[in-house]
Amino acid sequence: MNDLAPLLTPEGRALLDDVRGTAPADELAVATRLRREHPAELVSAALGQARLRQRAVAKFGAEDAERMFFTPNGVEQSTRASVAAYRALRLKAMGVTSVADLCCGIGGDAIALARAGIRVLAVDRDPLTAAAARANADALGLAGLIEVREADVTEVDTASYDAVFVDPARRGGRGRIFDPEAYSPPLSWAVRTALRAPHAALKVAPGIPHEAVPAQAEAEWISDGGDVKEAVLWFGGTAPGAVRATLLPGPRTLLGRGLPDPGVRPVGRYLYEPDGAVVRAHLVAEVAQEVEGGLVDSTIAYVTSDALHPTPYATAYEITDQLPFNVKKLKALLRERGVGILTVKKRGSAVEPEELRRKALPKQHGPHSATVFLTRVAGAPTMLIGAPARAVTGAGPS
Questions:
Q1: Contact between 210 and 96 (Cβ < 8 Å)
Q2: What is the Cα–Cα distance from 124 to 357, expressed in whole angstroms?
Q3: Can you give the pLDDT of all 398 residues of the chain as single tens digits?
Q4: Which of 113, 256, 280, 316 could form a disulfide with 392 if both were Cys (CB 3.0 to 4.6 A apart)?
Q5: Residues 6+ apart with CB under 8 A from 79
Q6: How big, in percent rounded to 5, are the helix, strand and coil portions of the chain?
Q7: What is the C-alpha to C-alpha distance for residues 290 and 69, in angstroms, rounded to an integer?
C-alpha cells in the first residue's frame, strides 16, 4: 500500500466498512466476492487496512482504531494512546498551547495533544505517513487543531511554538537501534532543538543509558499496565537532572531522591518485584526505603522485607520456601503442595521459564498455584517460592 487516496474515496470508505472485522481465515473468500465489483488493488488495500486496524486496537482502542488509517510501521512504532494522553496533559499543565510534533508518524501523539486542547504542527518526511496523519486528524474531527506537513524535520522553523515534541525513528533495516546517535534524527540534534524551545519532550527508548541523558533534562520512564513503554526527556519547566518513574493507569509517579544503593539482606517473608519503569529509572532504592527492605543480591532488582507495606511501585509476594536451584527438589515440593498452575519469573538466571515449567510441574496436576522466582541470593543460584500478597499489590498512594 503506497497510497491512501483510493481508500479515502467514497468507494474506498465503503469497502473499509464492508471488510471491518474480517477474520484472517475469511479473507480469501471476502476478497473473491468483492473483486467482482471493485478493483483488485483497492480490495487488497482495504483488507490490508482492516488487518492494521485490528492490530491497532491494543494501542488506540476499538473506537478510534476502526476510524483511523495506518501503515505497518505506524502501528508498530506509534505511541500507546494512554501514554500519549498522559504526556499531553503534562505539557498542558506547563501552560503549553502549541506544539511542533516532529517525526509525527501516523499522528498518535498529535491526536492526544489536540484532544488536550493544544494546537499542533505535525511533521513527517514520509509521504504515506504524513498522509495517514492527515487522514487521522480528519477522521477524528481534529483537523482544526492539527496541521500536517510533509517535510524534513531538521528544516522546520519551530520558533513560534510553545513546545517541541520529537519522536526520532529508532528502527532501521536491521531492527531496533540502541545507539541514540543512530536515531533518525540523532539525539544530539533533538537536544539542540529542545534547548531552543521554551518547553520540549523527547521520546527515547527505555533502554537509553543514564549517562546519555543530557544534564539539562529531566528523565522519566513510563510503564502502562506493568509494561515499560518509553522514556521521555523533558526540558523547560522541569528540574534538570531529576529522575522519575511513572506508572499508568493512574498516573502514579515516583521521584528519585538520590538515595544510595540499598544493602543486601537475607530473604524475609516478603519479596517485592519493582515495576519495570522503576528498575529502568534506577529507583529501586526508593522502593526499598518505602518497604523497609534490602536487596536479595547486589546485582538483582528484587527487594525483600519482613513487613508488608502498601506501594504501587512494586508487586509483593509472600515467600514460603527458599531452595538452591534444583529442578527435582522443586518438582517434589510442587507435588507435595498440589500445585498445578506455576508462574515462573526470573532475574539473574539463564534458565528459560517455559522449560522449567515443563520439567517441574508434576504430571498429576493439583488445584493450587504458586510463583517461583529464579534468581541469585547473595551470589548463589536460588529458587524462591511464594504467592502474591493480595493486600499490597496495586495499592498505595500516588
A1: no
A2: 46
A3: 568 999 999 999 999 999 998 999 999 999 999 999 999 999 999 999 999 999 999 999 999 999 999 998 899 889 999 999 999 999 999 999 999 999 999 999 999 999 999 999 999 999 999 999 999 999 999 999 999 999 999 999 999 999 999 999 877 656 677 788 878 888 999 999 999 999 999 999 999 999 999 999 999 999 999 999 999 999 998 899 999 999 999 899 999 999 999 999 999 999 999 999 999 999 999 999 999 999 999 999 999 999 999 999 999 999 999 999 999 999 999 999 999 999 999 999 999 999 999 999 877 778 999 999 999 999 999 999 999 997 544 433 33
A4: 316
A5: 59, 87, 108, 109, 112, 167, 203, 229, 230
A6: 35, 25, 40
A7: 45
Half-sphere exposure of 313 (CA within 13 A, CB side): 31
* Type of residue found at 373: F
Phi and psi at 215, nearest 5°, equal -65, -25
Nearest Cα to 312, choosing from 390, 394, 391? 394
77-99 burial: b if 16+ Cβ within 10 Å, else e? bbbbbbbbbbbbbbbbebebeeb
Q: Please give the model's pTM, rounded to 2 decimal places.
A: 0.90
Nearest Cα to 360, choosing from 386, 384, 340?
340
Rounded Cα gap, residues 285 and 328, in angstroms? 35
Give me the residue label for grid cell 527505555. 206
Q: Which three cell numbers stand for residue 201?
A: 519532550
d(CA 222, CA 211): 18
